[in-house]
Write a structure and sequence with these properties.
- The chain has 243 residues and is α/β, with parallel strands linked by helices.
- It is built from 8 helices and 12 strands.
- The strands form 2 sheets. The protein has a 6-stranded mixed beta sheet, with helices on both faces. It has a 6-stranded parallel beta sheet with strand order 9-8-7-10-11-12, with helices on both faces.
- Helix 1 packs across helix 8 and helix 4 packs across helix 5.
- The chain is globular.
- It comes from Cochleicola gelatinilyticus.
- Keywords: Amino-acid biosynthesis, Aromatic amino acid biosynthesis, Oxidoreductase.
- Pathway: Metabolic intermediate biosynthesis; chorismate biosynthesis; chorismate from D-erythrose 4-phosphate and phosphoenolpyruvate: step 4/7.
């Protein structure tokens, strides 16, 4: 019986545990999936050593970047992205990191093509945003990051004008703002500049309809949450673990 799991912080809401538990039940597998809520990423090694038959792990906020130094190998695409969300564990406890977020996002985004323009704003600069940027670059989008702190290559939330919002038709929330239980939170963008030409993509999946999406929908934009992206990336993780 193989064992799999998710490492992160405050992950009781996890999609992954439900997804894989249902998968194992439907396929009459005796495998199991567990949440490993870690206060510190350095505790990863303890889990790997103590848990018998552990074959693979998913990685979520806030450890997608912090986990990199703890891995024995990192697959080329994950290395380019600079973030890992899937770990394959060998029989001798060697850890290899992969990124399936970029695959999941690309597949989910393709369901909404064509867009009004190949332009995008990425809200947040964490591990998930790196996978999103990797996909947008591959698809030849013109994109900008948005964060609270100013850098030469991004906007701050306060800088978002009507012109900037109208220029960028895809807005992706890669922050945790709005995640259960803090469902009243939302990224501080000027929603009054959103139009029917926009697509708002929220990587959050719990709740299914975040305040970010509600505000975009009220302005006529197309909206989608992160559920399909997670399904696609989970299926890719499964292939990696069993290859």
């Amino acid at each position: 019986m193989a064992k799999y799991g998710l490492i992160g912080k405050n992950i009781s809401y996890s999609f992954s545990k439900t997804f894989f538990s249902i998968k194992f039940e439907n396929e009459k597998r005796k495998d199991s999936y567990h949440n490993f809520d870690l206060e510190n990423i350095d505790l990863l090694q303890d889990i790997v050593l103590k848990e018998e038959n552990l074959k693979g792990l998913n990685v979520t906020i806030p450890y997608k970047e912090l986990v990199l130094p703890l891995l024995d190998n990192v697959e080329k695409e994950a290395e380019k992205i600079g973030a890992v969300n899937t770990i394959k564990i060998s029989r001798n406890k060697k850890l290899t990191g992969y990124n399936t977020d970029h695959y999941g996002f690309a597949k989910a985004l393709a369901m909404f093509f064509p867009l009004h323009k190949k332009t995008a704003l990425i809200l947040g600069t964490g591990g998930a945003s790196k996978a999103v940027a990797y996909v947008l670059k591959t698809l030849e989008f013109d994109y900008k990051f948005v964060s609270r702190t100013k850098t030469p290559n991004n906007y701050t939330y306060k800088e978002l004008t009507r012109e900037i919002m109208h220029k960028h038709c895809l807005v992706i929330n890669c922050t945790p703002l709005g995640t259960f239980p803090n469902i009243q939170d939302f990224p501080d963008i000027p929603y009054h500049f959103i139009t029917e030409n926009h697509l708002l993509f929220d990587l959050i999946y719990n709740p299914r309809e975040t305040e970010f999406l509600k505000r975009g929908f009220a302005k006529g934009a197309r909206v989608t949450n992160g559920l399909k992206m997670l399904e696609f990336q989970a299926k890719r993780s499964w292939k990696i673990w069993n290859s």
